[in-house]
């Protein structure tokens, strides 16, 4: 499991998503009659990565986690930027199938997948992108998708933080509180929430 340095609700949400990824992988192994920790599991992971567009994103993420990059030695797709094989695998990760969960706005699953990828491979992204995506994890996991205006307001507030502040904040409310004098989202611009 990935330890998220900022802690708080984002770290809890990441742990929950990672548990769901592992559960999907366990079900996937059972479907194919493959035992964990075997050569067959590695071969199955290689099959998934060979055509990520044929599998759900959680299965793809689990497969990548089980493979090593032959160039840098890290989990495939999570090595340093500039590692050609990891850059390619990280890009192919986003070809996987996304199916929105029942009773969630369209696009919520995509947001959750991107936020999870950023949080799991944070060294591949800038500090402000990490901040925004990691802080968004709890809401996305709860089935909330911010409106465009709300997301833009969060982005504007994050852009005003120092890099150190970006790494320490644990909620969008904390980000907004650091800049009370900035324009805050109007009440009518609340996130779309479907339960």
Model description:
This protein is mainly alpha-helical and 195 residues long. It has one domain (8-193). It contains nine helices and two strands, in the order ααααααβαααβ. It has helices at residues 8-32, 39-50, 57-66, 84-93, 108-120, 127-141, 148-159, 163-168, 172-178; strands spanning 144-145, 192-193. Strands 1-2 form a two-stranded antiparallel sheet. The model is unreliable at 182-195 (pLDDT under 50).
Helix content: 55-70%
Distance between the termini: 28 Å
Q: Give the strand order of the largest sheet, numbering strands 1, 2, ... along the chain.
A: 1-2
- Which consecutive residue ranges, at least 5 long each, have pLDDT under 50? 182-195
Instruction: Name the average pLDDT.
Output: 91
Q: Determine the strand fraction and express it as a percent band.
A: under 5%
Largest sheet: 2 strands, antiparallel
Counted up, domains total 1
What shape does the CA trace take? globular
CA radius of gyration: 18 Å
Structural class: mainly alpha
The total of helices stands at 9
Count of beta strands = 2
User: What is the chain-wise order of helices and strands?
Assistant: HHHHHHEHHHE
């Amino acid at each position: 499991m990935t330890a998220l340095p900022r802690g708080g609700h984002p770290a809890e949400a990441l742990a929950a998503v990672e548990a769901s990824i592992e559960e999907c992988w366990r079900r996937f192994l059972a479907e194919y009659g493959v035992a964990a920790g075997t050569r067959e599991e590695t071969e199955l992971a290689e099959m998934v990565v060979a055509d990520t567009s044929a599998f759900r994103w959680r299965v793809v993420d689990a497969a990548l986690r089980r493979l090593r990059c032959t160039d840098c030695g890290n989990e495939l797709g999570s090595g340093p930027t500039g590692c050609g094989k990891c850059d390619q695998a990280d890009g192919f990760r986003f070809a996987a199938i996304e199916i929105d969960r029942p009773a969630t706005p369209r696009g919520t699953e995509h947001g959750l997948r991107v936020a999870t990828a950023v949080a799991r491979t944070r060294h591949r992204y800038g500090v402000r992108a990490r901040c925004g995506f990691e802080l968004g994890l709890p809401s996305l996991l709860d089935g909330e998708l911010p409106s465009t205006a709300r997301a833009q307001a969060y982005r504007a507030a994050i852009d005003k933080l120092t890099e150190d502040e970006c790494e320490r904040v644990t909620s969008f409310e904390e980000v907004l509180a650091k800049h009370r004098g900035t324009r805050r989202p109007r009440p009518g611009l609340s996130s779309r929430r479907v339960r």
